[in-house]
Amino acid sequence: MKVGFIGLGGMGSGMAHNLLAAGYELVVHDINRQSGRPFEEAGAQWADTVADLGRQADIVFTSLPGPVQMQEVGLGDAGLLTTMRPGSAWFDLTTNSPAVVREVHAACVARGVELFDAPVSGGPKGARTGKLAIYIGGNEDAFDEYKSVLDAIGDQILYVGEIGAGNTAKLVHNCASITIRLAIAEVFTMGVKAGVEPGPLWHAIRQGAIGRSRTFDRISDRYLQGAFEPASFALELANKDLRLALELADQLDVSMRCAQVAQADFTEALERGWGRRDSQSPLELVNERANVSIKLSAEEVQEILDRG
Description:
Layout: E1 2-6, H1 12-21, E2 25-29, H2 37-41, E3 45-46, H3 50-56, E4 59-62, H4 67-75, E5 89-92, H5 98-111, E6 114-117, E7 120-121, H6 123-129, E8 133-137, H7 140-150, E9 156-161, H8 165-193, H9 198-206, H10 235-252, H11 257-271, H12 283-290, H13 298-306
Parallel strand pairs: 1-2, 1-4, 2-3, 4-5, 5-6, 8-9
Antiparallel strand pairs: 7-8
Helix pairs in contact: 1-6, 4-5, 8-10, 8-11, 8-12, 9-13, 10-11
């Protein structure tokens, strides 16, 4: 089976390397020619165009910034669907709009190509180590044929439902993550302003009923240390995910007041030019408004984590 991979950025490069390591014959493409060099050196082939890659591959993975790029790669004048063979499969790993995925799926059906929306969760580190959740939407019987390939890039391969269901699950996950962290920043700021030192406060809330599920651990490496560069998940990308979640909610007439508050902080942070900082950087705005400074060292954070 020949595997094609388009999009060799922070997420895509790790997943593509794992496909090579698993022994798959790999052909790659990216808008940045230099991104393909390490893969060629490791034994992959380079495709000069998207259409060339689609012509060669039995299964294609795309890891792209968002819906616009996915549509262009798939449906453009020299896109995948101009060359992909009937009976081949396309797994879009992009965090995408369910509506866009369904639109592209209809075009794929007409060409005899099986499209799956397959957004991933785990960040660049998970992409490198294979510790990724992959949320799958699409035809379940067809999915079963390709699951072994997905096992090379993720450890939680989760079939969610029909086309669009994968991205619905991913948007629910990311929207929850964003809004929960904002709530944590607010109450944490209150506790510090009330006179409790950040380290003992964080340790205390980690041992409570919610804290024991490790809800509060996700703020340890960024927010608590004031370490937002380089980003593990850039604010501009997280903002795209939040926007897509709110668009989906609007389509379904679902009130999202908590998420809208988080979006307002994201907007303010973006207006400050923080787009390439980590997605936890808007939490700093909560501290600013309360005139509170919170910064633990990496050693202090690790000492608290070591306590259990």
